[in-house]
Amino acid sequence: MSDTDEFGRVSRRVGQLFRGVLLASTLAGILTLAVLLVYVANDAFRPLTADPGWHLTFLLTFVLPTLGVGWWSYQRSYGTLTTGLLGIMLPTIAALYAGGLAALFIDVIPTLVWLSFVVAFAIPVGVVVALDRTERDIPFLAEITAVLAVTAGSLLFVPDLVQGLPTVPADWMVLVLTIGIPEALLLGRWTRGRWGRRAGLTTGAGIVVGSAVAGVLGTVTGVGAIPGVALALFAGVPTALYLSVVAIERPERRAGLLLPAVIVGGALVGELFVGALGFAGPESWVDWGFLTSTVQRGADPGAVGIYSGIVGTILLMFTVAAIAIPAGVGAAVYLEEYAPDTTVTRIIDVNISNLAGVPSVVYGLLGLGLFVRYGGAQTGTLLVGGATLALLVFPIVIISAREAIRAVPDSARQASYGMGATRWQTVKNVVLPRAFPGILTGTILALSRAIGETAPLLVIGAAQVFGVPDSWNSTVGAMPLQLYVWASTYASPAFYTTVLAAGIVVLLTAMLSMNSIAIYVRNHYEQR
Amino acid sequence: MSNGNQASDMSEGSSGDEYAVSVPEGRGRDRDADGEASTIIESRDLSVWYNDEQALQSVSMEIPEKRVTAMVGPSGCGKSTYLRSINRMNDLIDAARVEGEMLFNGKNVYDDDVDPVALRRRIGMVFQQPNPFPKSIYDNVAYGLRLQDRTENLDEKVEEALRKAALWDEVKDQLDQSGLDLSGGQQQRLCIARAIAVDPEVVLMDEPASALDPVATSKIEDLIDEMAEEFTVIIVTHNMQQAARISDKTAVFLTGGELVEFDDTDKVFENPENDRVEDYITGKFG
Ligand SMILES: Nc1ncnc2c1ncn2[C@@H]1O[C@H](COP(=O)(O)OP(=O)(O)O)[C@@H](O)[C@H]1O
Ligand SMILES: [Mg+2]
């Protein structure tokens, strides 16, 4: 140590330069993306075709109040702002998915067929519950035989029986019966646990009555009975529940609900003024006609729509989820909790990680070879497309589920084993509940990867013109495939700046909404 | 601090003073030492390896029923390994291999016909870090009973276990709150309640108080004293005074996995036979 007063200085020049470079590359990335999005959005929504008066009206009634209230909530507390944002995001995203489900019931699955299969599955489930409840000791083998026999018999005969009924319930009744009542029971239980018996009863009754009313209202107003019930059950109920939770349990954040009120109110008031004053809105390409038209080509972009693509994507998602989630999560649980640590399992480990990086075209070829060449399936059908995309996301689901399972602290497993739990009991009671949010997040992200894929669908021979599928064996398309076709086969200058841009907006909305759900789930459970 | 020649692995977050045991007055337990207790657990030449590294060397010891037996020794000497080989928690470690016998009520638990899961239902375990499940207090205590389908009179059994763990009065109005919302000491007593709710014969405790503050520690010690009325308690501790205060018998392990002294606690602390043990308990080395 020298005994001078000065410490001297340490040079930071290289570090500063490095920091500058990092900042520049970050900005470049964000800027490129922003320019691209603005460009596409401009083509899709065409805001400049609106009257200036229209813009001014909405600026005053909608934009400024929203910004003002948003800022005010943020000043109160960050929690207030997020409460408000969730209050508007939840109904919006839920309504999107409710619309998707409604499309499913309108076009693909006749409600009567749905009802018949729900009944056919409910019977064996009822038997299992009854067996579980009974006091008498039945040998395991007899039990399993009985359950299998009932399941098989029920699936064989009940659907035909139900479909042959002399009187057929209306669409909305079927939905209220098969979805509304289970939802009422489930959420009723949940609210009873939280706020007591009366709340539980109110919730249950409210859900059943509310969805029935929505069905009738939908028929009367022309929205349709199915969309009415779907919106009530999948958007209305979650929103109402969210509002109740905030109102009852988070009084300090209640002020945040002003934000959604201002957003909805502002939009309505703006609409009213614009109509009264005669200001024309923008001639947006993303409109009701675009979302619901099944026309895929032609000279007039105004007639073209993306409906077939939306329904195709939804159906593919259901198929992929039904195949990839059980298989992927199952494999993850096996590898993490059961498999011994040997060379073989280590080789499998490495290979799964590699598989996640294989280009999607290769999965398309694999699907083609596996299902069409060897399996003898038709090309381009819903089942083949779903199975191929399931192959694609399978490794991703495994990896993310394994990560979630590995994040469960070992002390939790030790506690359970130490109590004399079997492996299965430990997995069921300790590991899976704790890993669930992580598994959910990972699978949603995997699905959102799958809905953006075009190449595998092309390779398995998906048709360039596709309708709305009505069975497992009809050909199917998807939103990205539709975009690809508009940009290549039917490319015309008229399409580039019109329906293509509108399609991109729709696809991105679907993907971003899925990703935001995944992010919300992750953050929500991380806070605990 | 006491003398400066303590080995570094002794300083597990405690001051050296705790090891320099100036034997306190009235130490040892008041349990009537005259009535000789029968043996519930006995190991014969028990050796444990992790891969090729031997962690226990031919340990033979007889553990009396309904007494508190303490295991002390420097860290890494195999105390936890011994504890885990009693209820076969070592089975969960791929690298672990056991030789010799571990008799529980005269039956070797490593015999082929012994189901380790059934064994663990009779030998409960409490860990160093309190590890309640992220479930309600009630569900934590009911966990083992539900595993075994012993759900009749569940409420009473849960209450009884919480009372025995001296936790009932503190939590009786919040049974449906998460076990993780409790303080560290309460969490550990919850884990004890969870372990004793299924009426095990033996409770193994691996340094149950080493993550707790002095007040919580003394509550746990009182609790262990009461538990010995009903259960056989085997406790690992690195705190000499704690061993002296609460145990009837003390086993001293030294580095290398060797059991060097096992006798009545009074005898071990006052007049150990082995010089290395004397050095160890008076803090001369770790
Ligand atoms: N899971 C394990 N894998 C490999 N070695 C282990 C494992 N657990 C303990 N050991 C080794 O066994 C020896 C005894 O450890 P342990 O029983 O935990 O000692 P203590 O509880 O007395 O501190 C140490 O050398 C330790 O490194
Ligand atoms: Mg230890």
UniProtKB/TrEMBL annotation, chain A:
Q: Please provide the record's keywords in A-Z order.
A: Cell membrane, Membrane, Transmembrane, Transmembrane helix, Transport
This entry carries the following GO cellular component terms, namely: plasma membrane
Tell me what topology the record assigns in the membrane. Answer: Multi-pass membrane protein
Q: Which CDD domains match?
A: TM_PBP2 (cd06261)
Keyword Kinase part of the UniProt annotation: no
Q: Return any one Pfam family short name.
A: BPD_transp_1
Q: What region holds the ABC transmembrane type-1 domain?
A: 310-517
Q: Where in the cell is it found?
A: Cell membrane
* Superkingdom as given in the UniProt entry: Archaea
Listed transmembrane segments? 21-41, 53-72, 84-106, 112-131, 138-158, 170-187, 199-218, 224-245, 257-280, 306-335, 355-376, 382-401, 431-451, 494-521
GO biological process assignments: phosphate ion transmembrane transport
Picking any one GO molecular function of the record gives: phosphate transmembrane transporter activity
Give the matching SUPFAM superfamilies: MetI-like
Which InterPro entries does the annotation name? MetI-like, MetI-like_sf, Phosphate_PstA
Q: Does the keyword Transport apply?
A: yes
Q: Family assignment?
A: Belongs to the binding-protein-dependent transport system permease family. CysTW subfamily.
State the protein's name: Phosphate transport system permease protein PstA
